[in-house]
Design brief:
This protein is of the alpha/beta class and 246 residues long. Helix content is 31%, strand content 30%.
Length: 246
Amino acid sequence: MSELRLLALYPDQMNIYADRGNVLFLQHRCEWRGIGFSYAAAGIGEEFDPEAHDLIYIGGGQDRDQRMVAADLVATKRDAIKAAIAGGVAGLAVCGGYQLLGSSYELGEERIEGLGVAALHTVREPGPRLIGNVSIEVDVGSGPRVLAGFENHGGRTYVDSGGEALGRVLHGHGNNGRDGLEGIVRGNLIGTYLHGPLLPKNAWLADELIARALEHREGARPELEPLDDRLEDAAHADAERAAERG
């Protein structure tokens, strides 16, 4: 039987706006198909084997938690994360976790060092927080699709030279409210500001992550069994309408 091995980074600190629901949704969609699902977590001070997991997940957190997590990521996990990404492990980083993929997060005179695994940087600039429902157009391997969710971030993120944004903003603010871009993609790694949680509102993205994770494990991309997604499709449509209303 196939099995997806998921590693959650800092689930106790990085779980704002029900981000843990993304992990539960991935687990359910695996189990509904008869795919095994194993869960592991790595918190403060804990190292991990980059070859022992197929999908790495990190959610968002408050600034105080993010500072603590950022220092620990660099000290205990950066090399393993870089090795996992280079080896094709799938990844999803949301909000604060997304910001930490980049080179740095600047808050006034304070500079938080990031992982440096994606071409982006984040700055806390004057102005209101970027809050609200959001939708973006993306193409992550299955043709153009729409992701819909909720954003709430004070940092403004900029994709650096050589980086590739996840998508184009249709409604909402996106990375910085200026350039019309949202998120980052590097190989099988996806970073985004979309909370909500994201995956229950975008079941197709959950399946894309599952397929990528299993391809990493088994060497070939699987054909996932279709599921009855009437409720998930309704949730997605509602999230899109909310974004359109602003």
